[in-house]
Structure formats: C-alpha cells, structure tokens
Write a structure and sequence with these properties.
482 residues, 21% helix, 29% strand, globular
C-alpha cells in the first residue's frame, strides 16, 4: 500500500468531515499540529505522528491530477487533500486510507490510489508506536542520518509537492543531502531535477536486477556509510573510480517524441511597476499560441496563470528568493520552473522551460501525429524577450525525450543546441565587434533596433548529431575572449 493517500473532492472538506476522517483511529487517538496548524497529525501514545494531513489545496488548473497521479479529478476547481502515513507501519497506512475514504464519502469525490481506499470502520491501532524523533519530526522524511535525509515516494510521478519542498528545506537547513527513493516505473517531475543536482542528493530507483540505481545517471547504488552511494566496479582504481551502470537505465527506446527546451535569464530594473512572468508568457504565446495554464509554489500547480499574482508573491517574499512552477494544458504538455532573486543588478528571473511533442515532430515538417516543432517562431520569441523583457541570454535545445515532459529513470541523451541568444546589454558591453564576428559558419541574426541590437546565433540542431555542442562551445570560448 502507498505511503501517500490523496482525497480529490468537489467540495472543500469542512471541519466536521475532517474530524470524521481523524476519528479513523478511534476517539482516543492523539491529534497534534505542525506548521502553525497547516498540518494535522494522528499520533501514537507518545505523541509521535502516525498520519500527517496537510491543509486542503484548491486546484483551479485542469490536468494536474492526470499529470501527477494518472487519476481523473472532479471538474475544476476541486480540492486536493494529502495524507502521508509513517513509513513501515501498516496500521498507519490503513489509517491514511480510511481518512481519505471517509473524506471523499462525506464531501463527494474519490481517494487516490484506488487500492488505498479503505473501509469506513475504525482502524485498530492499540499498541502501535513509531520511531522516535528526529526522524518522525519531519512528516516527509522517512530516514534521517548524519549525512542525508531519505524520502520514500510511491507515486507515479515524484513531484515537488509541499511535503517534498519542506523536506528539501529542512535538509538544506541541517546541511544534509536529500535522497528520494521510488519504485520501478516511476517518473520524475522536471521541477525536481535541478534540486537534486548537488551531491549527495539523488533520485534513487528500486530495480529487480541491480537493487538500486540513480535515476538520472544510472549509477548502481548501495546503502553504505549512512546514505545511498555508488558501487565501485571490480576493476576500479583511485585514478579511475568506475561505477557500474544499471541495465534498466541503458534500455533506450526511441519513440520519436521530442522536447523543445529553453533556458533563459532576464535582469529587470528594480521598480515598483515591475510585473514578473511576462517574458515567460511571451515565449509561451509565441511558441504555442496560448499562455500557460497555471502556476504555483509547489506541485500540483493550483492557480490559473496570472503574472500579477505571481509578482505579488515574489514581492511579499523579497529579499528572499522565490521559486515557481508553471504548467501547460493537455493539448501542449509543458512545464517551466522560475527562480526570482534580488541582486545588485536588479531583479533576476531565471527560467527553465520544456515543451513536449509527439512522434510526428521534426525539425522541418511534421508527420504521423503532425506535431511540428515551432522552430520558425524561435527568432521572434527571442526578439520579444530581448526588446521587451531585458533578456540577458538564452539557450534553445531539442531533445529526444518524452512528450509528457516527465523524466524517466533511463538514459534519454543530452539535448542538442538549436540557438543561442545574447541580450542587447551584453552585446553592448562586449569589446569591439566580437559579438558580431564569430567562428561559426552561420553568422548571428540581429534582433531589435540596430542601434542597440541583441544577437541570435543559429546552431546545428540535429538530435542525432552532437556537433551542435562543439559549435556551442566554440561560440562560448569566442564570446569570452578565450
């Protein structure tokens, strides 16, 4: 049975419905709170949590339950209520299931996953107790050592939920890595990929053949010295510490699906009239013909797209940095992460964005599903960013990757650069005519006014040919004066 159980309901769970769910363990079960009352917990006789229930989320973005759970949700807006059971305690898992079942039964809806739905009867928990603190002190953390915090996620998609965001924050404050363990067949939300980039943080996938492996690198792992770490090959040396790669990770199946990936950075003057998110919306409209569907500070994205509301949240949190996730609709799967920081240069917006296309996509004309990559729209999107949104730089790539933009636990291959864009201010400050005269076969295209232009550098973009990276590296060395 899963550790996480979610109630998807058409109405907001009222206090009486929540109380009925909390009585799943009987009237004598202790109830505690965390996070200034945002989390309610059913506890053992020592006050340690068996089940932690987060405050319900109002989801106003279509497709999030399908994207993250593979479930059918009520029409938007609907309520998403998560209950997390303490790992390794069967009674706690039954409690979470019964809580969600009672909630869905009383206010109308369903419990996910379907097999976690329990009966409405009280779950017998007499004599049940859980591990002492500190492991039980953080609801999302299942194992805590001196080196890492380990979170077990038995979900179709490991996403940056509020639970997991809290675990990342708690681990960082304690100076620990975060290791997320999931079963075979699980995918990773791109919103988490960058957060797991620093050692010893990892996405760990259970595997029948190799035990455990890193879902992003394929390295075979074992639990050693208080964390999951790579296994050394028999022929490894200090100079060449080879690590075996899991066989499952190497099973590559080219479905013909593609992703168009963009990474860009904007630096805005600090101004009370500044509205953030405009650059992202501009690119989204140029490449898809529509704005983003929704956004949030965690997954699921709960709010309809609104640059003004996004700006208000960033302003309230300033001078601390703010992180957002932005999602597309069912017709064009897409996801972006946005990081807002205040620096001496102004307000910086760093965006990582990916659009998914089906097997009929290509660099020129579509076939099959007819999903053609909008390559002709890239220069106009870049020009809009450069002239209206203080673009500093942008890299565009095409990747052999899934249309649903989820990250599978197997090798997908690197993206291949299609284009690089240098903002007008960066072109202006570069000495001489270095930015305009490059060693590339194809010279840059001028964007915006000639008196203060940005430059668009076309690059080879064939996913089967890595020469695009060689050209990109040559360009970077040239622009840096190397």
């Amino acid at each position: 049975m899963t550790k996480d159980v979610i109630a998807l309901t058409s109405k907001m769970p009222d206090p009486w419905a929540v109380l009925a769910g909390l009585l799943s363990g009987g009237p004598d079960k202790l109830v505690g709170t965390r996070g200034e009352g945002a989390v309610i917990q059913l506890c053992d006789p020592e006050g340690r949590p068996l089940v932690s229930v987060e405050a319900p989320l109002l989801v106003s973005v279509e497709g999030e339950a399908e994207r993250l759970l593979g479930a059918t949700a009520p029409p938007v807006p609907y309520w998403w209520t998560e209950a997390r059971a303490t790992t390794g305690v069967a009674e706690a898992e039954a409690l979470a299931g019964t809580f969600a079942t009672r909630l869905a039964s009383l206010v109308g809806g369903s419990a996910w996953p379907p097999d976690a739905a329990g009966s409405l009867a009280v779950v017998e928990t007499d004599g049940v107790s859980v591990a002492p603190e500190p492991a039980a002190a953080q609801p999302a953390i299942d194992v805590l050592t001196e080196r890492v915090a380990v979170v077990i996620q038995d979900r179709p998609v490991v996403a940056m939920t509020a639970w997991l965001s809290d675990a990342f924050r708690a681990a960082a404050e304690a100076g620990l890595g975060l290791q997320v363990v999931s079963p075979a067949g699980t995918t990773l939300s791109p919103a988490i990929r960058d957060a797991l980039g620093g050692w010893p943080s990892r996405w760990i996938v259970q595997d029948e053949r190799d035990g455990y492996y890193d879902g992003l690198t394929g390295a075979v792992l074992r639990w050693q010295d208080g964390m999951f770490a790579p296994v050394a090959s028999p022929d490894a040396t200090e100079d060449d510490p080879r690590t075996p790669v899991a066989a499952t990770f190497q099973e590559v199946h080219d479905t013909g699906e593609r992703q168009l990936a963009l990474t860009f950075r904007m630096v805005h003057p600090a101004d009370d009239r500044l509205v953030l998110g405009g650059g992202l919306e501009t690119v989204w409209r140029e490449l898809t013909g529509a704005p983003p569907a929704g956004w949030g500070t965690s997954e699921p994205a709960t709010l309809p797209w609104s640059p003004r509301r996004l700006t208000d949240v960033a302003h309230e949190r300033a001078p601390e940095p703010t992180w957002f996730v932005v999602v597309g609709n069912r017709d064009r799967p897409a996801i972006a992460t946005v990081r807002i920081t205040r620096t001496e240069a102004g307000v910086e917006e760093h965006v990582t964005l990916a659009f998914g296309y089906g097997s009929g996509s290509g660099s020129g004309s579509g076939s099959g599903s007819g999903e053609e990559l909008p390559l002709d729209a890239l220069p106009s999107a870049a020009e809009a960013l450069a002239t209206r949104h203080h673009l500093q730089s942008m890299l565009v790539q095409v990747r052999k990757a899934r249309r649903d933009v989820a990250v599978p636990p197997r090798f997908e291959g690197p993206g291949v650069p299609l284009a690089f864009v240098l903002g007008a201010e960066e072109v202006r400050t570069m000495p001489g005519d270095r930015a305009r005269r490059t060693p590339l076969a194809e010279q840059p295209v001028t964007l915006g006014p000639r008196t203060r232009p940005a430059l668009y550098y076309p690059l080879p973009g064939d996913p089967s040919d890595l020469s695009g990276w060689q050209e990109y590296e040559r360009l970077m060395r040239h622009l840096k004066g190397a």
